[in-house]
Design goal:
about 60 residues, two-stranded antiparallel sheet
Length: about 60
Amino acid sequence: MAELSPIDLQKALSGMDYPTDKQHLVERARKNKADDKVVSRLNDLKQDQFDGPNEVQKAVFNE
């Protein structure tokens, strides 16, 4: 899979309200017209609940 940058993730989740769940992360990324690799990576996360953007970033880049 192509590398995903933290900036791509940040842009994809712009405007996200926390806490949130994985489904809402995916919906927000699609609404923000994120690249398919970003949407796919979010959809594949094992964790379902997120308290903030730092928690999402840890899950995306450490899984």
